[in-house]
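Researcher: Next entry: Putative flavoprotein involved in K+ transport (Caballeronia arationis).
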Amino acid sequence: MSQTSNHYSVIVVGGGQAGLSVSYFLKEAGIDHLVLEKNTVTHTWRTQRWDAFCLVTPNWQCALPGYPYRGDDPHGFMKKDQIITYLDGFIAMVDAPVLDHAQVQRVTPADGGGFAVTTSRGKFTADQVVVASGGYHTPIVPRMAERLPASIVQMQSSEYRNPEAMPEGAVLVVGSGQSGAQIAEDLHLAGRKVILAVGEAPRCARFYRGRDVVDWLADMKYYDMPVDQHPLREGVRDNTNHYVTGRDGGRDIDLRRFAAEGMELYGRLDDLQDGAMRFAPNLAKNLDSADGVYNRINAGIDAYIGKNGIDAPSGGVYEAPWRPPQQERTTLDLAASGIGSIVWCIGFTPDFSWLDAPVFNGRGYPAHHRGVTPFAGLYFVGLPWLHTWGSGRFSGIARDAEHVVQSVRATREARAVSVDALTA
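Model: Predicted structure:
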């Protein structure tokens, strides 16, 4: 491909921590590149987190390339403003070549090799492309939302900010993954009436036998386990994250305790009929399943402590302090419930419709091995479990970005050898 003013050896799509990490290693390798960001760098961290948001993993796991956490609270949990300060330092250190407010509209293979990239700020070409835009693009909101009364304010989890900004009345939180459980807690602690539709998300302890569970799992090498060695293999990518919190120094999120304190729990939200929400009678099953995961993780830690003869405080098994009635409630009359708002916390779907390459499966997920796709010159970074548990997080992105840039460099060198051979 001929060189033009709009041509780069590599174009990186996305200016979050993944894209900036790729830029770090590309700069280290001396490879010219451009990072395209549809908003501004690390935009999601600044605009799609609620006010009380904090990390759910300890600060020591913040290990972006060349920029590990250097604060005085490695076992604490950074709050939103502290996370942004950390990211601002990383942005300044990397000094990536970024074109912001450049939404990528189309990426297609170019005649003669490489890629043509069309954006809202012009057209570019590249020998290779790294997609670092993450996997959480389109908020999931069920079609039943269209039939809810206009008087009920609806928002997606990325739009929630704080209890004070919510309208009067009870708040229905739909979904109990990390965002749903933490938003429900945020509202509950503020004294708001919360109704929570509990899904199948697992949970884990914050602390167990004298240490943060994350510390134990790190010692057990869980965070180094590649996806192809996980018991679920690639199926783990579909798992919902365990709910736990780093709030106020870190603690468990125990939905049963919230229920005992007045939060109303229901099973999975299924439909809206005749002015009433309809729920599946699976609340007890979902709570028991989450507790089962909680206890199995702790049992794994027990086994590790025993095998290695580690001196640690005694452990135990979580026992439920509250259980739903045997005959579960499956309907909730909207008018009688006093619901004034709903927060949808049921996740996102990926959207790579702008990328024209034969690498996607039937669910729109790209085929790859450690981010390297079967299509020459196309890579992904920042997807959940791209290689390990930390692939989409501060803790593991450096390893993935470095591996992808090594592949980029190898492909670049192979092409140079090929061109030299043709012109010799």
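Model: Note for the record: Residues 237 and 388 are 10 Å apart (CA to CA).
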